[in-house]
Amino acid sequence: MGQGTDQVEVRPARRGRRRAGAALAVLTAAVLGVAGCDAVGGDSHGPSGSASKRPKPAPVWDRSPDSVAAVGDSITRGFDACSVLSDCPDVSWATGSSAEVDSLAVRLLGKTEAAGRSWNYAVTGSRMADLTGQVTRAAAREPELVAVMVGANDACRSSASAMTPVADFRDQFEEAMGTLRRELPKAQVYVASIPDLKRLWSQGRTNPLGKQVWKLGLCPSMLADADSLDSAATLRRNTVRDRVTDYNEVLREVCAKDRRCRTDDGAVHAYHFGTDQLSHWDWFHPSVDGQARLAEIAYRAVTAERP
């Protein structure tokens, strides 16, 4: 009887331990299952919909910068827009104060702010080789946007053979961009394309006064012997036209390597300047109306939403 009693008493204890073990196993599995759902890391992607709750990174390109510096050549200085053979920065497409132009700086900042927070470091006659020096001076102002229009004078030389080689043009632009990035790592850069110089010749040659001014030495590679249509003159003009196309491709390629740089996608080069958009002093540089068209193109490019 004593042994039988012991056996009867032991069996319930074993069943209790089995039940307790099973319950513990179920509880452990449940806890592990919950932990597995909440854990983030390894191959786990977290709960469904968690990505949508993460804050989106700020865009690299700011469509409303609070300061503008301009660099480049005679076009950005408003050359021949107000009087013959003279700069007129008040009508500059980039930083001018003229209400007729409504410059890029005024459109972005407003007239009052633009007066104190925009600067024009362009120099008439400048070529791409001069851009690094201009960028260095502009960087001292710490602008949030640097507007660039340069390259026409690299094509406007004494002859087609004297034009800046494309490889040199590229090296000089890369040097300028490198300098800008060292001085202003987060500054944005807008690069305007070079106008179609052959189209400017075709428009301006209809004006006798303009052609007289051209004889003073204005862009001889394109404008010399303005009325000549012989094969040599045609070849020379086409060579200049093609070089400008190559320069614009360099501007696009170099800019594309910098995530804080954008071009006008060739809009200035494609724009059909008519006689109303050309200086009535030399019939080659932009008039006040032409400067306004350049400002429109720049503003659209700077404020456009892009991926």
What's the gyration radius in Å? 34 Å
Name the assembly state.
Answer: single chain
Report the total helices: 12
Strand content: 5-15%
Notes on the protein architecture:
With 307 residues, the chain is an alpha/beta fold. Helix content is 48%, strand content 7%. It has 12 helices and 5 strands. A 5-stranded parallel sheet has the order 2-1-3-4-5, sandwiched between helices. Helix 4 runs parallel beside helix 6 (166-183). 39% of the residues are buried. Residues 1-51 have low confidence and may be disordered.
Considering the chains and any ligands shown, give keywords for the structure.
about 5% strand; single chain; globular; alpha/beta; about 300 residues; about 50% helix; 12 helices
Give a topology summary:
Layout: H1 2-38, E1 68-72, H2 104-109, H3 111-117, E2 118-120, H4 131-139, E3 145-149, H5 152-155, H6 166-183, E4 188-191, H7 197-204, H8 208-214, H9 220-223, H10 231-256, E5 261-263, H11 267-270, H12 288-303
Parallel strand pairs: 1-2, 1-3, 3-4, 4-5
Summarize this entry quickly.
The chain is an alpha/beta fold and 307 residues long. Helix content is 48%, strand content 7%. Strands 2-1-3-4-5 form a five-stranded parallel sheet, sandwiched between helices.
